[in-house]
Amino acid sequence: MEPTPAKPVKSQHKSGQSTAGQTFNPIESLSPYQNNWRIKARVSFKGDIRKWSNARGEGKLFNVNFLDESDEIRATAFNDVAEQFYNTLEEGKVYTVERARIQQAKPQFSHLTHPYELALDKDTVITECFDTSDVPKLHFNFTKLDKIQAAEVNAVVDVIGVLKTANPVFQITAKSTGKAFDRRNITIVDDSNFAIDIGLWNQTALEFNTSEGSVIAFKGCKVQDFGGRSLTLTHSGSMVVNPDTPEAYQLKGWYDNQGMNENFKSLKVEAGPNQNYIKNRKTILAAQEDNLGMHEKPDFFSVKATISYFKTDNFSYPACSNTVPGNSQAPGQQENTCNRKVLEQSDGWRCEKCNITLPEPLHRYILNCSITDETGQLWTTLFDQEARKLFGMSAGDLINLKEKQDMNESNEFADLMESITMKEFNFRLRARQDSYNGNVRIRYQTMSLFDVDFVAECDELCQELDSML
């Protein structure tokens, strides 16, 4: 006898028997131009209920991702509706969903690629399904580890690899709140012969007990660049141990037969200029002659160079300081603030992205400087993190120094610039092609910089001399 479909229940959980005979829309087809639609999807991620506040008020919300064989879409519920559906939905179970509002996606809050998202409200109807065979558990778009170096910082990627090492859990304390977070760093490898570290947070870090040699698939890892490339599993990300996918079986066979004995290339960059770092350094002329930056993807290289000139007329931009919901789950996962450029208006500083007006902006560095070595010169841009390291202060503090100098109240700004100009540093640069007014040029960004270690430099020179004798 054919099971009877469950009767939908508005804004509350109700068990059903089957969805046989019903027609569903694929998630990839959803758009605001549709009215009568229904999807059948699995909850691939369910977030916690979080509190939010901004200039317009405060409240609570939670997010959930729905997945079918065509795509994945994010849904959000606020306040009483959030409480209602938080108790309705369980991660991993399958539901039919209808009568939610379809609206433009907010990519700053999610790594999903669907152009739209769902807003769950009091009219939304959700029904649990037990006929789940046609709904996948997770959808991955894997990136090989050797491609991570060329990925944009803060890009979100899916990766799959074999667990090489798992380090013990340690704690990180957020400077802004004093709150402690648990973290565990693990290393995975793949058949591109690269290894990369992945940071796990809080409960995921504490409960991780996978044995080395297991295959793990990660969905939703953010690319970071602190001492080289690494990944961190985002709050809405997930991992599956030994997944039932062709990629997993292929990797397991490769590792057991060959990979466990390989020497893997690391995406790390040493924190200081050790001798290996010095050996791999380029001159500016060599980088230009090698056409670094002229390829389809960015090139990365290191130079030892002197800062010869700063552009001090425009070294920062006014940024939005609004706290983005869901971005404070753990340090390093996401930025705590919006950071988009704001425009000054009569009633304050306007952020179009957050749709709010702030009384004051947060100034962030975007510093252009000329660097030279014995072979040539180039212009590079330092963003907030590296410029803070260079000046030892925030962009707002440096603006204050410049304003005092402009009013003849202090010479501290000029003294600071003079103390850094003609000083030598080790730079890690990214070169990428850019087109402006029809002209192709190379733009260089400083990914990291640190002081020259003269002891290491002397040791390297001594080794070169010894090799000549």
TrEMBL record:
Gene3D superfamilies: Nucleic acid-binding proteins
GO biological process, alphabetically ordered: DNA replication; DNA topological change; double-strand break repair via homologous recombination; establishment of protein localization; heteroduplex formation; nucleotide-excision repair; protein ubiquitination; reciprocal meiotic recombination
Major localization listed first in the record, in broad terms: nucleus
OB domain ranges (all copies): 42-105
Location in the cell: Nucleus
Record-given protein name: Replication protein A subunit
UniProt lineage: Eukaryota, Fungi, Dikarya, Ascomycota, Saccharomycotina
Domain Replication protein A OB stretches: 145-242
Single GO molecular function: sequence-specific DNA binding
Domain Replication factor A C-terminal stretches: 300-461
InterPro entries: Euk_RPA1_DBD_C, NA-bd_OB-fold, NA-bd_OB_tRNA, Rep_factor-A_C, REPA_OB_2, Rfa1
Region (Disordered): 1-27
Pfam families with a match to the protein in the record: Rep_fac-A_C (PF08646), REPA_OB_2 (PF16900), tRNA_anti-codon (PF01336)
Summary of subunit composition and partner proteins: Component of the heterotrimeric canonical replication protein A complex (RPA).
Superkingdom, taxonomy of origin: Eukaryota
Family according to the record: Belongs to the replication factor A protein 1 family.
Example of a GO cellular component annotation carried by this entry: DNA replication factor A complex
Keywords noted in UniProt: DNA replication, DNA-binding, Metal-binding, Nucleus, Zinc, Zinc-finger
